[in-house]
Design goal:
globular, 10 helices, about 75% helix, mainly alpha
Length: about 220
């Protein structure tokens, strides 16, 4: 009895540690990409553009935009989980903290490896927080919700959203560059490897209630079909 229940009692603690470690590292990676100044991923391009026009920090904009995106979950009948709410708050706070800690770099020789490290870290962080299975982030949930409601492939839904977000961010002055392309090409394989690496093998085989309510696995919102 004890031997069987022991791993199950430890599982929520392991999942919580994995969730917040992943979200923290994700926020750090976003801050490092900003400091590399070689281009950002689409949502950060939009948030940076809004930040430049409002005077708010990019971390604050990230939090506010995440909360606003959650409102779009209502007509999609998506239900947020602990990971969803934590995603909204933690990423922005850690992002601003990373920018305050990390000085600006002038040397291209320093910014290129910083970009590479940030993308690698982002891939690892993606697998960590999604594999914890506490619900998708607001942007991932938007994608899976639209996929469920429209019946369109996740790849198509994600592409349409991110192209729109990227174009809007660029129009607002967000940073688009080689880092944007590198991220787009690398994040799928990196996240897929990370999801397999950090999968919690003692977890029940059935999907969690949060994921089940969403109607599509958050993994599919990150990875290409």
């Amino acid at each position: 009895m004890t031997s069987e229940s022991g791993p199950r009692r430890r599982l929520p603690v392991r999942r919580l540690v994995q969730l917040y470690t992943g979200l923290t590292l994700y926020g750090v990676s976003m801050g490092l990409m900003l400091r590399a100044e070689l281009g950002l991923e689409p949502w950060s391009v939009l948030n940076q553009g809004i930040s430049r026009h409002t005077g708010l920090s990019i971390g604050t904009v990230t939090i506010v935009s995440g909360a606003l995106i959650l409102l779009l979950w209502i007509p999609l009948r998506q239900r947020p989980g602990l990971g969803t709410v934590s995603n909204v708050v933690v990423l922005g706070l850690v992002m601003d903290a990373t920018l305050a800690w990390m000085p600006e770099l002038d040397s291209l020789g320093a910014r290129i490896p910083l970009l590479a490290g940030a993308v690698l870290l982002n891939g690892a962080a993606t697998g960590l927080y999604i594999a914890a299975d506490f619900g998708p982030g607001p942007r991932d949930g938007l994608m899976t919700g639209l996929h469920r409601r429209t019946g369109r492939p996740v790849r198509l839904v994600r592409t349409c959203i991110e192209v729109t977000v990227l174009a809007a961010g660029f129009a607002l002055g967000g940073s688009v560059g080689v880092g944007t392309v590198v991220y787009a090409l690398a994040i799928g394989p990196l996240a897929q490897f990370s999801l397999r690496r950090f999968a919690i093998k003692d977890a029940p085989a059935k999907p969690s209630p949060v994921v089940a309510r969403g109607g599509a696995s958050p993994e599919r919102a990150i990875l290409p079909e």
